[in-house]
Amino acid sequence: MNWPAIFAKEAQKHSLLRLDDVAYRHGVQEAVARNAFHRWEERGFVERVSSKAYINRLNQFFTPQDLVNVLRPESYVSLDSVLVDSGISTQSPSVLTCVTTGYPRAFRSPSARIVYRGIAPALFWGFQEKPTRYGQCRVAEAEKALLDWIYLSRQDGLGPPLDEINLHFLDRCKLIEYSRRFPRTVQRDVERLLAAAPG
After folding, report:
1. Coil, helix or strand at residue 106
2. How far apart are CA 19 and CA 167, in angstroms?
3. How far apart are CA 104 and CA 72, in angstroms?
4. Segment 153-175, tens digit of pLDDT
5. Of 26, 110, 141, 194, which sits most exposed with the smallest number of CB within 10 A?
6. What are phi and psi of 40, to 5 degrees?
7. Domains of the chain
8. What is the pTM for the complete model shown?
9. Gyration radius of the chain over CA positions
10. Nearest to residue 110, comparing CAs of 71, 55, 152?
11. What is the pLDDT of residues 19-73, one digit of tens each?
């Protein structure tokens, strides 16, 4: 098979390759495709992220957001990534941070570093579908990202450093309303944060 031609054709449609999907559509066994992907990864055509997800290096428009709902369908970008993008925190993360109802895990490759933290199904809400070049990616609203961050900090046994939070870009009424769906410890943190904030 002419794998470089296959990768080039796929690059016109997406920045990602699903090994099982490519194998099925081209009528080869997954083991054969896996060996081919491994060979062509060494030559810089593809980049492995997980056992079945690869970045197509022939497509120049890849972003880590393309991978978020491929690696974990029940997930959304949240925590530090959203807090920084929203101007709520200045602590720039070195990875794309997400929450998932699936198995938590970190994925790392030269082009993508994504960390998934586990969250209860009852807390899987408060996000929007944002368009990417080739599809969509779920991204938390700023208020939900802050609550996820406080909640998971508490789950880790840590008190969240609330003095680093800038409330200027948050909807305070929405933050209070959303916090009522979290444990009381999170609600108390939100109350303290709002009480200490000017105006």
Report:
1. strand
2. 44
3. 9
4. 998 887 777 777 888 889 999 99
5. 110
6. -80, -15
7. 3-56 (1.10.10.10), 65-196 (no CATH)
8. 0.92
9. 20
10. 55
11. 999 999 999 999 999 999 999 999 999 999 999 999 999 999 999 999 999 999 9
